[in-house]
Amino acid sequence: MDFKLSEEHEMIRQSVRNFAEGVLAPGVVDRDEKEYFDRNTFDQMGQLGLTGIPFAENYSGAGMDYVAYAIAVEELGRVDPSAADTLSTHVSLGSWPILAYGSEEQKQKFLVPMAQGIKQGGFGLTESNAGSDALAMSCKADPDGDSYVLNGTKIFITNAGSADVYVVFARTGPKELRSKAFSAFIVEKGTPGFTFGKFEKKMGLRGTQNCDLVFEDCRIPKENLLGKEGEGFKIAMQTLDGGRIGIAAQSVG
Ligand SMILES: Cc1cc2nc3c(=O)[nH]c(=O)nc-3n(C[C@H](O)[C@H](O)[C@H](O)COP(=O)(O)OP(=O)(O)OC[C@H]3O[C@@H](n4cnc5c(N)ncnc54)[C@H](O)[C@@H]3O)c2cc1C
User: What is the pLDDT of residues 84-115, one digit of tens each?
Assistant: First the structure.
């Protein structure tokens, strides 16, 4: 097996290294010490084409492979682990499930601006009583006319507050359905009934933003159901499988 990187991979490494050292490095200590996320860093990653790096060009992605994506995250992580975390959460957790399970309409509406770096993505699965045991989640979505009504709180969510588009998981069926009792939804920042809770103070990755997503009778249009009703747990687990590529690349960097 040939482990040599292609010319394209070496080019992406050099270009992200230049960006990380030239643009991110000057502010990295300040962001970490004062514990704040700067949306400009995300916007600049978008201008460089990193926010859609592994997505097809017809969805405004860069059309590169996952090796290129991992190299980009490594290079960001080498200089600014928070920027690497912000990007990999956006790509792997916020955008990928829309690529994999979204309708063509959802991809055009959400994935395209996310790949362009115009909209930032987040992923809401964890709850105070549902971490490793995600099946214990109690956030629920009740169908009502043309909408689902979402109630519950997600915690520790990366990019929360800053991100514009969230893939959120909630119970839509009875306990007996076990893993098929959950569905995935695309929820936009600004939807009435959707607010942000307390911001986490962290020991590391202090330049990424983490906080609660709070849903109080939040109406989600039925067209924002991602995949089919009952597929949410499968979507969450598959998304986390891909997310591990980003986490590993951050750590290598
Ligand atoms: C920096 C950061 C960013 C995050 N970003 C997001 C995000 O964007 N979206 C999101 O949804 N979530 C996010 N999370 C939440 C993360 O996914 C959870 O922290 C994780 O699932 C673990 O859940 P928990 O913290 O409740 O720990 P627990 O599940 O309570 O685990 C605590 C400890 O117990 C161990 N443990 C758990 N179950 C068992 C068992 N059955 N047997 C033996 N040991 C066990 C675990 O290994 C761990 O060491 C983030 C967390 C952090 C720290």
Answer: 999 999 999 999 999 999 999 999 999 999 99
Distance from the CA of 134 to the center of ligand 1, in angstroms?
Answer: 9
* Nearest alpha carbon, ligand 1 atom 44: 132
Here the ipTM equals 0.97
Tens of pLDDT, residue by residue over 133-158, are 999 999 999 999 999 999 999 999 99
Joined tokens for residue 223: 């067209």
Domain 121-229 has CATH 3.30.2160.10: no
Domain 7-118+243-252 belongs in CATH node 1.10.540.10: yes
Residue of the CA atom closest to atom 25 of ligand 1: 131
* 22 CB within 6 A, ligand 1: no
Domain parsing of the chain, residue ranges: 7-118+243-252, 121-229
